[in-house]
Amino acid sequence: MRIPDLSELCAILTSEIVLSASQ
Questions:
Q1: If 0-12 CB within 10 Å is exposed, 13-18 middle and 19+ buried, where does residue 4 land?
Q2: Distance CA 5, CA 19 (A)
Q3: Over the stretch 1-23, which tens digit does the pLDDT of each residue have?
Q4: What is residue 3's predicted lDDT score, i.e. its pLDDT?
Q5: CA distances from 18 to 4, 5, 6, 9, 15 (A)
Q6: What pLDDT was estimated at residue 14?
Q7: Distance between CA 19 and CA 3 in Å, rounded?
Q8: pLDDT of residue 4
Q9: Distance of alpha carbon 1 from alpha carbon 11, whole angstroms
Q10: How far apart are CA 23 and CA 2, in angstroms?
Q11: pLDDT score for 17
Q12: CB within 8 Å of 8: residues ≥ 6 apart
């Protein structure tokens, strides 16, 4: 199991925030 890097985590976080904000 590989560790995701910081840019990947930021992309996941921003997508989660955008999805929750658009609801």
A1: exposed
A2: 21
A3: 788 899 999 999 999 999 999 98
A4: 84
A5: 20, 20, 18, 14, 5
A6: 98
A7: 24
A8: 80
A9: 19
A10: 32
A11: 98
A12: none
The identity of residue 10, as a single letter, is C
Q: Tokens 């609801």 map to which residue?
A: 23
Cβ-proximal residues to 6 (8 Å cutoff; 6+ apart), any chain? none
The tokens for 3 are: 């560790």
DSSP string, 1-23: -PPP-HHHHHHHHHHHHHHHHH-
Q: Which two tokens stand for residue 15?
A: 């997508």
Distance CA 11, CA 9 (A): 5
